[in-house]
Design a protein that fits this description.
Strand content: under 5%
Number of strands: 0
Number of helices: 5
Radius of gyration: 35 Å
Structural class: mainly alpha
């Protein structure tokens, strides 16, 4: 049994321009929201700290007031570090999720593009379904129906060529060496056409159709 395909990080970036642009937009938007909300929260905490300091001035000694100020300053620095850390972690999470989300669109487009290139090159091998959870399922189903129709047409043409070739071979066998000239040349052309169409149905290139899309 073949070893299962190992998913790599680079396989998630099938369309770097689209995926990284979308990811950057999402990160910028969430970062601006986080900074805005974080700034409001931090200022509220600063106001609370200043209120505690003002109340302490009226009732405590200078040493106690200074200790409270130092403690409030330490807490403010800790809140700022927590806010910055949360913002960075949140940005990384949004970036990762955006890449995975866009991969569910870029992956099907990548696969459809490769299948279309194969059709252009005259290859009509088997088409495999998208992965569970991928987007563009309806679009891919329509493409698959079109591909199936082309494949059936090619199979019908192969069957028709087989019948013509068989009939011509019987005719040549009955006619003997005298009729083997031009008819034999036409028979070779029919066989070559049949072989090309048969090869187009053999599923060649399916490995390249998957590529990094797994």
């Amino acid at each position: 049994m073949a070893d299962p395909h190992k998913r790599r990080l680079r396989n998630y970036l099938l369309n770097r321009t689209y995926q990284l642009r979308y990811t950057l937009i999402m990160v910028v938007i969430t970062s601006l929201l986080t900074v805005g909300l974080g700034y409001v929260w931090y200022q509220q905490m600063r106001v609370t700290s200043r209120t505690i300091e003002v109340k302490a001035l009226a009732t405590l000694s200078d040493e106690d007031v200074q200790a409270i100020k130092d403690d409030m300053a330490s807490q403010d620095r800790l809140r700022l570090l927590v806010l910055v850390g949360f913002g960075l972690v949140f940005a990384f999470v949004v970036a990762g999720y955006s890449i995975i989300l866009t991969h569910k669109v870029a992956g099907p487009l990548y696969k459809i593009t490769l299948y279309m290139n194969q059709v252009r090159d005259g290859k009509l091998g088997a088409v495999y379904d998208l992965r569970k959870g991928d987007h563009l399922q309806d679009f891919f189903d329509s493409f698959k129906q079109m591909h199936t129709a082309l494949r059936k047409q090619a199979e019908s043409e192969v069957s028709a060529l087989e019948e013509v070739i068989a009939s011509t071979e019987r005719h040549l066998a009955q006619a003997g060496p005298q009729g083997a000239g031009e008819v034999g040349h036409q028979l070779d052309s029919l066989r070559a056409m049949r072989d090309r169409k048969t090869a187009s149905l053999g599923g060649k290139g399916e490995a390249s159709a998957k590529g990094p899309y797994r």
